[in-house]
Amino acid sequence: IIGCEALLRWTDAQLGVVSPGVFIPLAEESGYIVKLGEWVLEQAIKDAVLWVKRGVGVKISVNVSSQELHQPDYAAKVASLLSAHGLPACWLELELTESALLQKEPVIVQCIEQLACLGVQLVIDDFGTGYSNLAYLKRMPISKLKVDQSFVRGVPQDASDKAIVEAVVGLGRALDVDIVAEGVETTVQRET
Predict the structure, then answer these.
(1) Is 118 left (phi over 0), alpha (psi -120 to 50) or beta?
(2) Distance in angstroms (rounded) separating the CA atoms of residues 163 and 140
(3) HSE (CB half, 13 Å, CA atoms) of 131?
(4) Phi and psi at residue 186, in whole multiples of 5°?
(5) What is the DSSP string of 95-129?
(6) pTM of full prediction above 0.70
(7) CB contact at 8 A, 24 and 63
(8) How far apart are CA 131 and CA 64, in angstroms?
(9) Are the C-beta atoms of residues 121 and 59 closer than 8 Å to each other?
(10) Is 148 helix (H, G, I), strand (E, B) or coil?
(11) Which tens digits make up the pLDDT trace of 25-77?
(12) What are the percentages of helix, strand and coil residues in the chain, rounded to 5?
C-alpha cells in the first residue's frame, strides 16, 4: 500500500445508501461543501497521524472542491490543521479536478501555489475528463495524474481506451509526474 484516499459515504436510516454523486452536488450547490470538506480533511489528517505513529505511514489523498480553493484562507487552514495534528505535509495529497485548475482566477492560482509551498502534493483527479488545453500541466506544481476509471475500465479490450491510458502514462513520464490508474480491477488491466 502506497497511499489511500478519503472517501465520504452517507447511509441514511430512511433513504439507505446515498450516492456521493447525489449528495456532493447538493453540498456544492448549497455552499456546504466548504464546511464538509474541512471536516473530511481534518478527519483524514487525524487518521494519517495515527497510521504514521503505528509505523504504517501512507499518503492520504483528499478531494478538494473548487469552492474550497476559492476561500482566500484555504491554504492557511490546511497548514493550521497539519500543524495542529503534527502531520508533515509530505503525507498529504490534495486531489483537484481539471475544471478547478482551468479557472484562472488569481485566488485559485495563489491558493495552489501556497499549497505547493507547504509541501502538500497536488494531484489531478479524473485526468482526461475535462476540457483542457493541457497548458496548466506546465504552469501548476502538479505531482501526480490520476487516469479516470472510465478509460481504465475498457483496458485492454477497447483499443481507444488503451491508447488514451498509454498516452497519459507517456505524458506523465515526460513531465516527470506520477501516474495512478483509477479503477484497476483485474490482473490484465494492471499489467497493461
Answers:
(1) alpha
(2) 25
(3) 1
(4) -125, 160
(5) EEEHHHHH---HHHHHHHHHHHHHT-EEEEEEETS
(6) yes
(7) no
(8) 19
(9) yes
(10) coil
(11) 999 999 999 999 999 999 999 999 999 899 988 899 999 998 999 999 999 99
(12) 50, 20, 30
